[in-house]
Structure prediction request, 267 residues.
Amino acid sequence: MTAGYQLVVLGSIVPDPLQTLEPVPGPALRNEMMLPAVLDPWAAHALFEAAHLAAGAPGSKVTLVSLGPKAKLQQVMMAVGQKVPFELVALDGPASGFVDAHETAARLADAVRALPGLDRSRLLLCGGWESASRGAGVTLQLVGERLEIADQFQGVDAVKVLPDGALEILERVEGGRHLASVCAGPPAVLGFATGSLPEPRNDPKVGMANMRALMPALQKAGAAPVGGGGVEWVEVALPKQLRETRIVKDRSPAEIAAEIVEWIGRD
Prediction:
């Protein structure tokens, strides 16, 4: 890989997970715009892993494509921009959990296609395996499908570049194990779980270099309205907190499952 990789990371912002969120009709979250925001934790892992891959492959470039409210994106990028070097492509639109994954994927795919000098032979599309906002767990996969990328890996914890340029990828599977796969090379989709790297320290030099491009990118952010796909929301409410504990012995798994299904159906 003499020309390096073209690493495109998809990630949006979410309310600080330490805050209490209350749904209201609309649908929306009460005072959502007043809450502090952070980069989606899964997307953050993907960004750090992508920057690590870029550092090991000369000529590589990291681009963060983010769909979210422009004002909130600016606040978050002031902090994230000090972690690792990247370019930003911002789309001004909602980032709540009430948007449709297909509409979101369509907007993101169009933004990736429009990247200057996009080279599919070098493209690694990275993102979060899950999301603290769009928890459908399918947005990254849908973007990959729209870009016609067949090699997709989800639940990735580590990526290693082999001497021949192939990628060795560790994906999470049941039982606390990893599935080791070898991909011949780009294009590929990498949906990261927690990753294997610590969060980088703040680097003022990186922050200053990033800010020169981040602010103009935010000013040029195009509108990207994504709704609910025509879905009508009748009611939104916090999950009920209920705990009923019983200790039962000598019950078969089928009997236990049937009782759980019956209990769920009472609500």
In short: Helices lie at 41-55, 70-80, 101-113, 139-146, 204-219, 253-264. The mean pLDDT is 82. Residues 229 and 263 are 32 Å apart (CA to CA). The two ends are 56 Å apart (CA to CA).
